[in-house]
């Protein structure tokens, strides 16, 4: 019985070797490229088994495998594996990298999203309403064949790793949704909808990348990493959610209000949110921010901005954000040589203290 159970478990995750390149072409594969000595890979093992079980028992077309990238290094490098573990979904000639949290639910959701069509149809009002309940951010192409539709299909193929893409006719929307012209690309989020303008919003790919988050987020280290790919600066209320104070609540509300009321002014350049505690921010800036307070991070070059005086009002917060936008605010940090030396010293000191 034990042997049977063991072989049944293995069937959920297939061990891959150098024949994989030739045998994979007709299937969709989710592959964990690992190294036997890698601690993170060992941590992923039970999760990966659960992913295999979930996808197999739910009837998904995705096959789950794992490959020792040190034993088959030539093949791993062909697939662009540069670190361990690397998770990729392979679909025809396309290889999609998974960069999300290493949890069963997140990985399964990624596999099901990417394995399906890049653009899914919303044929009815009921289906549109159902998807609006399921997704915080919803991208929809509206209209017939057009150059915009071709661009949308290309962007969907590229960015399906992050979010779903849909197409629909105007009839599926509520009457309150009015589009100035067709074809159009619309994003529904934050209780409103916004339309892509190719004259104002640069490329469609860049617009989707910037719009794929809600206007206001609870932010952690992983979210910051994801936001780095949008090119936006991140305005954060650093608060203590375990011991909330009136001041924490006030700063959080101010950031929420600016995100909503000043969307037209700041959405292209800023993401807004709050972070619980200052540990992560402190390690990022190699210093200490007070709790509660406001900080703006530039994740692309590791610069950060602090208000010159405590934020007491909406006007002050807007003024501070504008000063960062127009370049008059004092920038700290960065990724220059001196900062890199500081980072080495800071990390060494942190390791000793731990």
How do the strands line up in the largest sheet? Answer: 11-13-12-14-15-16
Structural class: alpha/beta
What is the helix tally?
Answer: 14
Give the SSE order as H and E letters.
HEHEHEHEEHEHEHEEEHEHEHHEHEEHEH
Instruction: Give the beta-strand count.
Output: 16
The general outline is globular
Main sheet summary: 6 strands, mixed
What is the percentage of strand-forming residues? 15-25%
Overall average residue pLDDT: 90
Helical content stands at: 40-55%
Keywords:
354 residues; alpha/beta; 6-stranded mixed β-sheet; 5-stranded mixed β-sheet; 14 helices; 16 strands; 41% helix; 21% strand; globular; disordered N terminus; disordered C terminus
Structural write-up:
This protein has 354 residues and is α/β, with parallel strands linked by helices. It is 41% helix and 21% strand. The chain has 14 helices and 16 strands. The protein has helices at residues 2-12, 20-23, 39-57, 73-78, 104-115, 125-134, 147-159, 204-211, 221-227, 246-261, 263-266, 279-285, 314-325, 337-353; strands at 14-15, 28-34, 62-68, 86-91, 94-97, 120-121, 138-142, 165-168, 184-189, 192-195, 216-218, 233-239, 270-276, 293-298, 303-305, 332-333. Strands 11-13-12-14-15-16 form a 6-stranded mixed β-sheet, sandwiched between helices. Strands 1-3-2-4-5 form a 5-stranded mixed β-sheet. A hairpin with a 2-residue loop joins strand 9 (184-189) and strand 10 (192-195). The two termini are 46 Å apart.
């Amino acid at each position: 019985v034990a042997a049977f159970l063991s072989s049944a478990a293995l069937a959920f995750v297939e061990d891959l070797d150098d024949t994989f390149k030739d045998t994979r072409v007709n299937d969709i594969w989710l592959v964990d490229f690992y190294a036997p000595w890698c601690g993170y890979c060992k941590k992923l093992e039970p999760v990966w088994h659960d992913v295999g079980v979930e996808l197999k028992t739910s009837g998904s077309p995705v096959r789950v495998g794992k490959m020792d990238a040190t034993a088959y290094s030539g093949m791993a490098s062909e697939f662009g594996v540069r670190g361990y573990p690397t998770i990729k979904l392979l679909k025809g000639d396309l290889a999609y990298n998974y960069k999300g949290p290493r949890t069963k639910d997140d990985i399964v959701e990624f596999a099901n999203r990417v394995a399906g069509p890049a653009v899914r149809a919303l044929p009815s009002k009921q289906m549109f309403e159902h998807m609006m309940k399921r997704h915080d951010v919803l991208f929809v192409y509206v209209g017939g064949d057009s150059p915009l539709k071709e661009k949308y299909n290309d962007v969907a193929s590229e960015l399906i790793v992050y979010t779903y893409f849909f197409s629909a006719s105007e009839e599926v929307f509520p009457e309150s949704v009015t589009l100035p012209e067709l074809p159009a690309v619309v994003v529904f989020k934050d209780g409103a909808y916004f339309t892509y303008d190719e004259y104002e919003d640069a490329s469609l790919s860049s617009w989707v990348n910037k719009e794929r988050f809600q206007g206001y987020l609870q932010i952690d280290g992983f979210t910051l990493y994801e936001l780095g790919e949008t090119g936006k600066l991140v305005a954060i209320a650093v608060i203590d959610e375990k011991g909330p104070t009136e001041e924490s609540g006030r700063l959080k509300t101010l950031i929420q209000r600016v995100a909503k009321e000043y969307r037209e002014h700041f959405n292209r350049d800023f993401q807004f949110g709050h972070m619980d505690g200052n540990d992560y921010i402190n390690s990022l800036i190699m210093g200490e921010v007070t709790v509660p307070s406001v900080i703006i991070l530039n994740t692309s070059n590791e610069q950060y901005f602090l208000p010159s005086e405590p934020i007491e009002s909406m006007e002050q917060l807007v003024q501070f954000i504008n000063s960062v936008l127009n370049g008059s605010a004092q920038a700290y940090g960065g990724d220059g040589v001196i900062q890199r030396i500081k980072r080495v010293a800071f990390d060494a000191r942190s390791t000793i203290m731990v």
